[in-house]
Amino acid sequence: xxxxxxxxxxxxxxxxxxxxxxxxxxxxxxxxxxxxxxxxxxxxxxxxxxxxxxxxxxxxxxxxxxxxxxxxxxxxxxxxxxxxxxxxxxxxxxxxxxxxxxxxxxxxxxxxxxxxxxxxxxxxxxxxxxxxxxxxxxxxxxxxxxxxxxxxxxxxxxxxxxxxxxxxxxxxxxxxxxxxxxxxxxxxxxxxxxxxxxxxxxxxxxxxxxxxxxxxxxxxxxxxxxxxxxxxxxxxxxxxxxxxxxxxxxxxxxxxxxxxxxxxxxxxxxxxxxxxxxxxxxxxxxxxxxxxxxxx
Length: 296
Ligand SMILES: [Fe+2]
Ligand SMILES: [Fe+2]
Description:
CATH architecture: 4-Layer Sandwich
Mean pLDDT: 91
Low-confidence stretches: none
Shape: globular
Largest sheet: 6 strands, mixed
CATH topology: Purple Acid Phosphatase, chain A, domain 2
Order of helices and strands: EHHEHEHHEEHEHHEEEEEE
Bound molecules: fe (ii) ion
Number of domains: 1
Oligomer: single chain
Strand content: 15-25%
Strand order of the largest sheet: 3-2-1-10-11-12
Structural class: alpha/beta
């Protein structure tokens, strides 16, 4: 099973329609004008899509922030730009990020659901989506239509998530949690996460310590990583970073992750583009990350 994780594409469009600039969108558009256009290079998106098409993975997981200010036009642009990756709904899973719920208007209009809802099970979060007999994605949605970048996993999610994983006979052997928000970041990014974390991240972390070995696929902090947090020893935290980010520092190379799983083995590659070429960096490899199957 080979999965591509993509996140934080952040399609953006300038909007001069004053009726679309009410409330929060004024802030969003101002910040976009101030920096997004410089920071996210839309002209690279086609090359990113080409690269993912060439890799012919079994599944594509997109962990949110497809848009910047949740404008209808941004959703339409994102859907069109990613069309070559989204031809088969059984081979792609998409969860929202905070920017896809940027305004109450977009939430009321269900802009995310009408554009990308077909790439997730119908019904409320959290849900469990089986990819093969051993592998499943547990999808979470901690986004809020709120000025802050901080999320909150709704109280009702915890009980339902516990229910979905309660039966050892049906719990997926290779469990992937998909949530836009990281719970823990590597030390170099910890300060950034502090200001955009889930406000109940401790409660989420407490729950995660009870569910056994899992991959935790997130975005939100625009930096790629694969690490085992000391506070969550059963977790491999994976962030694919932002594929269009301009990275003058060289510390956050833009790209996406390729996650390969064979039996108990997990390996993670980061595909990033540097100037005009692609580089592939191995980020993680453990031949026995997932648990031994139960012996009958
Ligand atoms: Fe983002
Ligand atoms: Fe985000």
